[in-house]
Design goal:
This protein is an alpha+beta fold. It has one domain: 2-Layer Sandwich (Alpha-Beta Plaits), CATH 3.30.70.20. The chain has 2 helices and 4 strands, in the order E-E-E-H-E-H. The strands form 2 sheets. The protein has a two-stranded antiparallel sheet. It is globular, with a radius of gyration of 12 Å. Keywords: 4Fe-4S, Electron transport, Iron, Iron-sulfur, Metal-binding, Repeat, Transport.
């Protein structure tokens, strides 16, 4: 599953630089995660780094982008090639 930043985001700027896939960017009001780039840090780290550093715990699993660990690994491999 890709991750999702909820509207509880305080725009603290700590998540964006932690994303190894550059899936996080500033949206119109809060930070957003681009699902096609989010691998939940699979291939890079054991846990999603944005979740680790978020001080308000506003990053959750995105129910609209369900993926298995195998799909996340495949996405990671495709991103590393492309």
């Amino acid at each position: 599953m890709a991750l999702l930043i909820t509207d509880e985001c305080i725009n603290c700027d700590v998540c964006e630089p932690e994303c190894p896939n550059k899936a996080i960017s500033q949206g119109e009001e809060i930070y957003v995660i681009e699902p096609k780039f989010c691998t939940e840090c699979v291939g890079h780290f054991n846990t999603p780094q944005c979740v680790e550093v978020c001080p308000v715990e506003c990053i959750i699993l995105d129910p609209d982008h369900k993926e298995t660990q195998e799909e996340l690994k495949a996405k990671y491999q495709a991103l590393m090639v492309g």
